[in-house]
Design goal:
Distance between the termini: 14 Å
Number of helices: 13
CATH architecture of the domain at 3-146 and 167-173 and 259-359: Alpha-Beta Barrel
Oligomer: single chain
């Protein structure tokens, strides 16, 4: 991040904090997001203004813990995200924090979720709420993982009824994200979880005993049930699913979703391949790229991918760093930045640089 852009971010953050403290925050005027009538993006209700999601995955494995231990940090980081041009954040409240047992929710946790909604409303950032997160292996619920498929689905539906009941009245909700990167079926020996990275696993299987059902059957049945659970309490907010880059696996599930949300990470020198993959998710519904980042490429390739994807996608979400951007810029200026620091900094700088181009505004 250049010194100029760093100072600009700090200046924007100061203005945001002053607005927050003087009661000029966004809560009173925040609008609900709806699918555009032509299914080519989103609009705000009731104004009808166009809404282009542009933001980040935030605190992917510890949002509830972070809020409980350091609420001031969460407020500060929402302010930092807003100052950088963010209008949507994807959060992943761990299922073990929400449920105490079968059919029993933790009321304190739901109060905490209400605080996140209020922080989002005050910052003017909409939330994409991802469900059923059991990422931290050490925190998994033995009673839940010992269930058979139908009891597990019943518990998942209860989770979504609980979340929808808690969040239904908040304009801060952009969408409910049913589950992160699911696989329809697996074998009993595989277990419910996959996608391991260190001490977390980010993906789940929906069935370990499909019988005569194929993957399409399982996705169709499961998605219908989760959508119905949400709609019992919330008829307004949108519903989607975080998808691995395998369009053929998810097309059936998408029939019941308001928009599709593939996770795409372009590879160095292969941006056009990723664009071709993105086009395969064009199923007549808006597309929000729910995860992207210069993970397998540099900032230049990521920039090219994002700009080219505007012809097909209607929203984008990267990842917000745990270190404040100003701290990352300071580390760079003093020559103390690590390679991960530099990658995070390149993303924040790119996000600020092309944000106006992605959302239809004027370049900064």
């Amino acid at each position: 991040m250049t010194l100029r852009s760093s100072l600009r971010l700090v200046h924007s953050l100061i203005l945001f904090v002053l607005a927050f403290l003087t009661g000029e925050a966004y809560a009173s005027g925040m609008e609900t997001v709806k699918t555009a009538p032509d299914k080519k993006g989103f609009v705000l209700h009731p104004s009808g203004d166009r809404y282009i999601p542009w933001g980040h995955n935030y605190a992917s494995v510890d949002i509830m813990e972070r809020l409980a231990n350091d609420p001031a940090r969460v407020e500060r980081e929402f302010g930092e995200m807003k100052a950088a041009g963010t209008n949507v954040a994807r959060i992943h409240p761990e299922m073990s924090r929400i449920l105490l047992g079968p059919g029993t929710a933790d009321q304190h946790a739901l109060e905490q979720l209400g605080k996140i909604l209020k922080i989002a409303e005050n910052s003017g950032i909409h939330l994409k709420i991802t469900g059923l997160a059991c990422y931290k292996i050490k925190d998994r619920m033995a009673w839940y993982d010992s269930m058979d498929e139908q009891d597990r689905w019943k518990t998942q539906a209860f989770f979504w009824e609980t979340i929808a009941r808690t969040c239904a009245e908040s304009p801060a909700v952009f969408a409910y994200d049913l589950v992160n990167e699911p696989a329809a079926v697996g074998k009993g020996a595989d277990g419910w979880y996959t996608g391991r990275m260190g001490d977390v696993e980010f993906c789940q299987r929906l069935s370990l005993n499909p019988g005569t059902r194929n993957g399409d059957d399982v996705f169709r049945e499961w998605t219908k049930r989760m959508v119905a659970a949400i709609r019992t309490h919330d008829q307004t907010h949108l519903i989607t699913m975080g998808m691995l880059p395998f369009p053929g696996a998810y097309k059936v599930a998408a029939e019941q979703l308001d928009f599709v949300s593939p996770h795409l990470y372009p590879k160095a020198g292969k941006v056009d391949d990723e664009i071709k993959l993105l086009k395969q998710f064009a199923w007549g519904k808006p597309i929000v790229i729910g995860e992207t980042f210069p993970l397998n490429c540099g900032a230049d390739d990521e920039r090219e991918f994002l700009l080219k994807s505007r012809d097909f996608a209607h929203g984008w979400m990267g990842h917000w760093p745990d270190e404040p951007p100003a701290k990352l810029a300071e580390l760079k200026e003093t020559g103390k930045a690590t390679i991960p620091n530099a990658i995070w900094l390149s993303w924040v700088e790119l996000f600020q640089e092309i944000g106006p181009l992605m959302t239809g505004g004027k370049p900064r």
